[in-house]
Amino acid sequence: MSPVSSGTAGGSRVLLRRLRDVMVQDADTQTRLDRIVAQIGTTMVADVCSIYLRRADGSLELFATEGLSRDAVHRTRMKAGEGLVGLVAEGVEPISLADAPKHRRFSYRPETGEDPFQSFLGVPVLRSGRVVGVLVVQNRYARTYEDDEIEALQLIATVLAEIVSVEDLTGALSEFQIKPTAPETLKGRTYAPGLASGQALLHDPDVEPTRYLSDDPIAEETRLNEGLEKLRSGLEALLAGDVQTLGGTSYEVLETFHLLSQDRSWERRLRDGVKNGLTAEASVEQVRSEHRARMTSAKDGYLRDRLADLEELDNRLLRYLSGDAGERKDAPEDSILVARDIGPAELLEYGRGRIKAILLEDGSPSSHAAIVAKAMGVPMIGQLPNLLSRVEAGDTIIVDANEAQAYLRPDRMVSAALHSRFEAQSAEQQLFAATRDLPSQTLDGQTIHLLLNAGLTIDLEQLATTGASGVGLYRTEFQFMIADSLPRLDAQTALYTEALDLADGRPVTFRTLDLGGDKVAAYMPTEREENPAMGWRAVRMGLDRPGLSRYQLRALVRAAEGRLLRVMFPLVAEVDEFHRAKDLLDKELAWARANGRAGPSKVQTGVMIEAPSLAWDTAHIAQYADFLSIGTNDLMQFFFAADRGTAKVADRYDILSRPALTFLKHIRDAAGDTPVSICGEHAGRPLEAMAMIGLGFRRLSMPAGGIGPVKRMLMSLNGEEFARTLACLLHEGDVNLRNALKNYAKAHKVIVN
Ligand code: PEP
Ligand code: MG
User: Fold this and answer.
1) Which pLDDT does position 82 carry in this prediction?
2) Is 2 a member of any domain?
């Protein structure tokens, strides 16, 4: 016999209705849960129905039962992983057994009086993908539970999860882990250094269903159908390019979502939920919770990624159902932004000031989002395992991005220890401030120009605080990425004027637009590309769209009236591209003159060496360009054939290796008297910066946070002597250069940390 299946959907609905009656009764938590197990037991014709809830130590405590001995309630606790109940929680999956005592994990508890019960069905009670308890039915005689009974019990567990989380608000369940309350420490990878503390702000907050139970399954199914229809057509519109905003989501990911949205078994699970009496939202929530839970326990990376995609799809569907378009709300003060991944434009939208740190479950250290975080001076940690299922909105978090650690809900001891680290950090910053006005010279008197990488006007305030001698890289595309529409000539001119004003006579090197790749402007049409980093971006787009380029160059020429104008072109792959780009600038200069404008007092044009092809033609380009700047972020990704945006390969190869350093040395030597700077992220790391100085580079441009540490390093370095050592090391056989350089620094008291 299959009790619930006697008209399965009808049976579940009756039960859900009874549960709702219990929920509205005026009673305490224990009484409510006692009544609930009694109802479930009766409807499912089970001899036993029990609820186990998870305690902070991971054990599962028998909280309510119908059928087991009452004396066992609150006494029986299964340790994490113990017995069949522990197994359900561990595997995050239902377990159905006709002959439970035979199972190797069966654990007999005499106080419960359960030995006469042969069959066992247990399902996890999931909230936001976390197991908060286990719901069990047992029967005296051996019987096999049908699939629809298992599904019915899962459905009840979904409602039960909601009931216990509402009860939790009363404080009655404070000893249990309904919401994560225990402190946790997560270790990831540092994308941008620094310390911060604040409250979790979820980038993609969960849409929580407001209603769980429905009276009208047909109406709910219609709502579900409409939601699915909107979801699919929304994805199709994005894929067709009718809607020109992909945010941080790539085309490939959308394609996967689209494919998954056609998945019949996903749809069937959703339909079963509403047929059985859940609202459309609650049914999606049930499926989402299962996806999350499986994701947390999945060992296989591919499976994890697919489950993450499914979860994202569930989220999108919930948004459609709840009419929440997912618009960004203003971040509260002291927010720690928590996301699976984030695009640079999305990050810029949050603006600066309120976001104190960023934590990502995925992401990549040399992605543009990481660069934006550094530009904003915001610490960022990526690759934090299962971050999203461990954090709830509003949780207190302390971020130590110097050690790549995030402390969730820290206790008093941890907070106190970390706050003393905060004090140490500010003491170190005072130390850097004290070196700000000292000459930037090595021990043997070589002058090294330290410059700032900027992209937002606010970064330029750092010129004064760091003592940088100018801006070596001004990423003009950031303005385009935050705007809702193409910035007009006036807006561009105003921004560049402000930048030059703030620089107060120090040189500012404006890099022309480097859009494309992972830097998308929402309003500009994007075409699907297999390899966007090597695609239609930077100067390639600039040359193909001369209107856009000339507009920007005109704004630069205007802003620099009567002052020095330095313009640099990104991702130039061959000398001719530079000539063509420079022609556009010359035309704008001529246009300004023809229109009676004063024009800049002096113009210098430079090129970024980011494509290996140009690196091998350095001597040639150096004849034409006034200056060169090596973008090591891009150059190294092409040199090692390792995508800077893919976490698994982004820093698999080391710039402090013989091939990379020899390559950079070739560029430096081939440039002759033409100044060459380094402006990739590496320039801001003391050990790497030391190597660059050893190769002969005298101009380093970096994020503001790097200037203090790099200056401290170079002021303790004997440049000549180190250059000789490095030259020898580059000729030695198998030597780990990074270690050799660290050893050199240690032996010669060069401060590289
Ligand atoms: C680089 O590639 O090193 C660089 C500085 O440019 P971006 O990081 O903006 O691509
Ligand atoms: Mg680049």
Assistant:
1) 92
2) no
